[in-house]
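Supplementary notes (optional reading)

For those who missed the lab, this is the record we used. Protein: NADH dehydrogenase [ubiquinone] 1 beta subcomplex subunit 11, mitochondrial. Length: 148 residues.
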Amino acid sequence: MPPKPFTYVLSGRPMAWHGFTADTSTFRCRVGHVSQVTWKQAEMKAAVSAEACQNWVSWGFDRFSQVEDNSTMHMTFFVAITLCIVTTGFIWSYLPDFRMRDWAQREAFLELRRREALGLPAIDPDLVPLDKIELPADEELGSREIII
């Protein structure tokens, strides 16, 4: 005859376990977790958890072992933060300029080197021909200050 189901208390909420058969049992709690343990293991977990759960708030990875819960939490956050965010950011920052965002700056440096090698000024004063520039007359400017 199997013993009576007992109530397992974690963080103030009782969870009744059902479905115990012989010495080794598969049981399901109200939350839906399925586990296969012996009666002695279940009683040990209940005793250890009751003491450990008095001042312990679970991270949600393991409800029974504080050490396992913290270890799993640290490993999960290490993988999530270090490997995902940091590594992805590192790879993204060293990708080539596939959208040609820096093309204008690179082209300007090449043009400056070419003009310096030929002994020309950095910007040609006749870049825009003077006959194509239309300046306003003095009457149109009026009393506006002109800063050159």
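If you only remember one thing from this example: Helices lie at 39-52, 66-93, 103-118, 138-141.
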